[in-house]
């Protein structure tokens, strides 16, 4: 089975210089994937000169959604943006998934408008992978929804569990809810009620997970509202960056410490590789009738290729039908309750 | 001027073995501080054997609040707990501040009941210091309030700024609000309204700070509701711990990497010292008519001594009167608005 991924080549901080190069490399290394490069043709083709792969097509789109553009305006005015056309290709069945490093708000708004929600799901959620002491966890929502109801959090749990079930071939992945105390009495009313719904849902619910529990790997899927999730994710990114800066500074302090750094380089590089956030690039917009993956705007070629792989893998493993089946299973239960 | 700090010696994971040792060391190193060691006398005195400092007094209290005890029960039933008696000493003016490594919820409930709130402040907030690329920032609330109104967040801003003004002798410390986007349009309604109030408050308000902005040092005071703050803090702790574990693992991989670790040890130790969370131990419960500092339950002697120093420094610099004055200044403005 071949999977086709539409790529918004104009999105992100570096545009085609990153997106097209990453797509080209990706196709070279993955026999089962075709890509459709969406964007301004004369900006895309220079990066393809060396390649004439039949699995690479260009689809011209004349407009670009700016990184700081208001999502509502991008939705209304940019009908021929690379972002929108890439999403249209998914809608029309010409692509199995799409990837963009562009404006998150616009990607969310346009995806929702074009693709619509899966039956039984009220809102999309941003789901990303974070490294943990035990491997990795899937956390959602990371910023699509600033206010969530308990029902939304339940839906996030169902979607996250279905995603892990499909992509990692795990029957009953563990699901936790982000909270401020391990005891059931803590947390706000929405979280408490959501925990009750998750407990009754038939999911493999393990209860509350505190902030540090994310990195301890206390659950394979962790649900939270988008405000809390976004703050936790970005605080983590900020801390990791600060620690890396401090570590570099210590090794750069003198000629002697620089020599030590040289000796320690293989060890430090192994460490860096292990926690490299670029490996985890590619957050999926779950809940839509189509696979949409958001790359970090600042992604480099290696990083963006990981986002393409994520999109391809969701298509290969049938994440959407898995979610749809699981939600259908849930609905009768909900109606009885 | 001598400052007296009451110490709940029975709180925390290690009780007097940590708290009394830390207090004894602290008094030896600080001429201007006396301590009152509160708790079960026969558990405290063994750790004092070597010392006969006139600035160390023992105040017997027969009960202990358990780390997992329900705050409401601790408040109702444990009238002679070391925690409560230490807080009573502050109330009665026998101590200028108190420190506890015990049950956070109980400490909050008992402090609020015994000391009451400062005029114009509705709720206490937990305020801690976090290291940043530029030095450090004060973040509040870190878990006392799971649902905050915009007015509460404004009060947190005023309290945080007053604290920094008093303790760090800065006239107009910068104040930011934790949010999920740098643009004013993002975030939920409470945060948006709170940002408006902060903008009109006369504080040196710098606007939205995203999660990573905490560690970039984008504001000296960062306000947020206790749910978000607690998750961000604990996620940071969890990530730092995971990274430390990974780094250790890489250096322990083989005889060669262990040798490298030995060579790199001075550099790694400098790094560790710089980001050592024990240096930042001691979160203050702001908004009460008295200084109450919460130490991490797992604090060691070095760490607990830092919490004592924090309590002493708040007393020395008159943080409470600074907050009271600043709130009084705000109130007429609020009433007009």
From TrEMBL, chains A, B:
Enzyme Commission (EC) number: 2.3.1.274
> Which reaction is catalysed here?
a fatty acyl-[ACP] + phosphate = an acyl phosphate + holo-[ACP]
Q: In which pathway does it act?
A: Lipid metabolism; phospholipid metabolism
> What Gene Ontology terms for biological process does this UniProt record contain?
fatty acid biosynthetic process; phospholipid biosynthetic process
Its biological purpose is as follows: Catalyzes the reversible formation of acyl-phosphate (acyl-PO(4)) from acyl-[acyl-carrier-protein] (acyl-ACP). This enzyme utilizes acyl-ACP as fatty acyl donor, but not acyl-CoA.
* Entries under HAMAP family matching the protein: PlsX (MF_00019)
Q: What is this protein called?
A: Phosphate acyltransferase
